[in-house]
Design a protein that fits this description.
Elements (H helix, E strand, L loop, with lengths): L2 H13 L2 H8 L3 H15 L4 E4 L2 E4 L1 H30 L3 E6 L2 H14 L4 E6 L2 H9 L5 E4 L8 E15 L10 E2 L8 E5 L4 H12 L5 E6 L5 H6 L5 E4 H5 L9 E5 L5 E9 L6 H11 L30
Parallel strand pairs: 3-4, 3-5, 7-11, 8-9
Antiparallel strand pairs: 1-2, 5-12, 6-10, 6-11, 6-12
Helix pairs in contact: 1-2, 1-3, 1-4
């Protein structure tokens, strides 16, 4: 067997259709059929059950496919590693995150420390991050909710309170704390299903036997505060957004939620089966060797406490 036969087999197994696989591979259907037949002869076992024009991967084909996927993925990793080492010196590190605001400062510091590293950043929800890690399209994910891969490893980077943001002048403006039942009828600005804010909102309301009223669902978490400030609803915002002083640009009032485990947990996740470039190894070491910086929450008597609009964020530690 040769490498080309294995790629042909992989394509046919994915489509379970000779014609569609031949179209993707841009070869004649008879040539593809002969290549599969030679592979089966070499293995001494049929890999597909034929059903007219369609083919179905049988138990032997399923076993072989797992090994082929792994082998071809390793070869692709090797080809990528050589290209990255040649082009950039350190190679490439690719990172996926639900919101770019979370990871951008970290990546900026990493780029300053390792200017020869090729850094790629992708915005993805949890489902997309899970898929990208399984397919080895990214090296790391900055995830705010659990990813389910059996080969995934993760390290918690930070845990921060999630606050309720309300428009200035709202009936809750000036309140220190509220409960979920108190806001059961309020319209919420949130993200679509798949993002951590929506998962947290649904969990908090579900614990009370309630369903949130949604006034807006978006794919851009960073836009939530702007929409809340404009009066489109209230919403859950991580404490870092207030601590970073974004309310000086997008004014809202902040309220603590009296609900259990109203936190965002940020983790660094990777697939242990993925070969990491030198740049990726440096990024992992860089990220885990220092605390993920979050500013402190003001005390309730501070002017910057929830309900105030002009907090002064302390400078970030180096």
């Amino acid at each position: 067997m040769d490498l080309l036969q294995l790629r042909y087999f992989q394509a046919v197994a994915r489509y379970e259709h000779i014609s569609r696989a031949a179209e993707e591979l841009r070869i004649a259907q008879p040539s593809l059929s002969r290549a599969i037949a030679r592979l089966e002869a070499d293995l001494g076992s049929a890999l597909f059950d034929r059903e007219g024009r369609r083919v179905r991967l049988n138990q032997y084909g399923a076993i072989f496919l797992r090994h082929v996927d792994r082998a071809l993925s390793e070869l692709d990793d090797g080809r990528r590693a050589v290209r990255e080492a040649r082009d950039t010196g350190l190679g490439r590190v690719s990172v996926a995150s639900e919101t770019l605001l979370t990871v951008t400062p970290l990546l900026g510091r990493f780029r300053a420390a390792y200017p020869r590293a090729d850094v790629r950043l992708y915005q993805s929800n949890a489902e997309e991050m899970d898929r990208r890690l399984r397919a080895r399209e990214v090296d790391f994910c900055m995830a705010s909710q659990p990813l389910s891969g059996t080969n995934f490893e993760s390290v918690e980077l930070t845990r921060e309170e999630v606050l309720l943001a309300v428009p200035c002048g709202h009936r809750l403006d000036g309140r220190e704390r509220v409960t979920i039942p108190e806001i059961a009828d309020e319209p919420f600005v949130s993200t679509r299903v798949g993002h951590w804010q929506r998962a947290l909102l649904d969990r908090l309301f579900g614990a009370e036997g309630l369903t949130p009223v949604l006034s807006c669902e978006s794919d851009e978490p960073a836009a939530s505060q702007d929409m809340i400030s404009a009066g489109l609803g209230i919403g859950l915002i991580p404490a870092a957004s207030r601590q970073a002083g974004t309310e000086t640009r997008v004014p809202v009032a902040w309220v603590h939620l009296d609900a259990p485990d109203c936190h965002r947990v940020l983790t660094l996740v990777w697939n242990r089966d993925t070969r990491l470039s030198e740049a990726a190894l440096k990024f992992k070491e860089f990220t885990l060797s220092r605390p993920f910086i979050t500013r402190r929450l003001p005390e309730p008597h501070d002017k910057s406490a929830p309900g105030g609009h002009t907090p002064a964020a302390p400078p970030e530690r180096p």
